[in-house]
From TrEMBL:
Segment forming the signal sequence: 1-24
PANTHER family, sorted: BETA-LACTAMASE-RELATED DOMAIN-CONTAINING PROTEIN, D-ALANYL-D-ALANINE-CARBOXYPEPTIDASE/ENDOPEPTIDASE AMPH
One of the Pfam families matching this protein, by short name: Beta-lactamase
Membrane spanning residue stretches: 368-389, 401-420, 440-466
UniProt organism field: Saccharomonospora cyanea NA-134
Domain Beta-lactamase-related: 32-338
Lineage of producing organism: Bacteria, Bacillati, Actinomycetota, Actinomycetes, Pseudonocardiales
Protein name: Penicillin-binding protein, beta-lactamase class C
Amino acid sequence: MKRTLLVLAVAALLGGLPATPASAEQPGADTFDDYLAQAWEGTGVPGLSAVVTHHDRIVHASGHGHDADGGAITEHTPMRVASVSKSFTATAVLTLVDDDRVALDEPVVSYLPEFHMADERARRITVRELLNQTSGLSDTAVDIAAAEEATSLSEYVAALRDGTLAADPGTRWEYCNVNYELAARLVEVVSGQPFGDYLRERVFTPLGMSSSAVDASEVTPALGHNSLFGLWFPRSELEGFLDNGGAGGVVTTARDMGRWLIAQHGHGPAVVTPESLAELHRPVTEAEYAMGWGRQRVGERDLLVHSGNLFTYTAVQAVDPDTGWGFAVLVNGAGLYDDAYEVLTGLVELSQGGTPDALGGSRQVVELVLGLLALTATGLGALGVVRAGRWARASGSGPRWWLGVRLAGVAVPVVVLAAYPDLASVLMNGRTVTWEQLTYFALPLTVTLALAALASVATVVARVVALRSVGSAR
């Protein structure tokens, strides 16, 4: 949910690179483990797990920290990986393409006749456009809140009936979870199986990902966490994000992600053909988004990347097609700062023989500043109430319009709080943001704004009351 994702893919590279012999410069498991232990301590997250692969082998997989019950996080600890799930969903669709049961450039309605929208252009959306996120679907044009109340993928699709498109299909890239929920439903309808069953049968099981699922009743994830001014506490995930969907439903482990990353280099069991693997990684439009992967500059490397944030979890995966390295980082917490991505950058640098900077402090500094602002706002509010009488006596003789301006100035934090979800939506490229969501990963900022608004209201009310009292006395 947090970065514009970009993609790198060349079919010849992804078809399988020859193994590179180990060299003295190549980091070993101990190097990665030492870095991850330091990263966990530096970032201060409750727990993280990570895996590093090179061509056809897992170089290192480990976990650090604890879960909500105090148990140790290991490379076998299941966690939600949020939007990293999209690459799995796209792969499931491509298996149907390989079986000649789906064609990428056919309209979605050819396979999913239940898909209807108030906008006739929706009938032209192709399967490829869903996976490339160029369908014209947007959070701004459909009722996301209604869709997320659905308890099944079929109900989700039905909730889109009154929606419209924000652009003609194929003309604009826009990240929207609806694309991948539709893709998951397409898999269900074409295969005749629940999405989770199909993903397990055609992707997880062939790759040996025995601890992965899109159903939390099959694989129970560690409880996620949120941070408030530096203190982490466990929280259940938002109900609207607990469905078994294709946009963010996968639960997996670092060890299983290692097998998945190896497959992205064309090694191990092949769940799709080399041609389909290249298609999954091929960028489109100026966004260079492919199918659940994106090209992004990480340090000095152009990598295939996709990250995810599910409000109490963060995750990121990356593959370097040129060197054969793969990386995944899973964190059982989410805050205003993406610690998982920061850890990933260090792993990438290590793989290239570099020495990463010490991690930690970024999130803590942000939350410390917000905490100080919250205390300051509270103190100013209390001072404003205490000194309301003095302010009224000094200002009561002035023109009313000037008093109104001064009171309005004090009320600015209230206006900011009222516009908070809309402002957050703008910062997240138009994605729908609800008040409930803002009480999760953005909790420190939400509390700070709420306290500032409360202090503002208290000051304004106290001054108005004091003005009336001064007026009556005169």
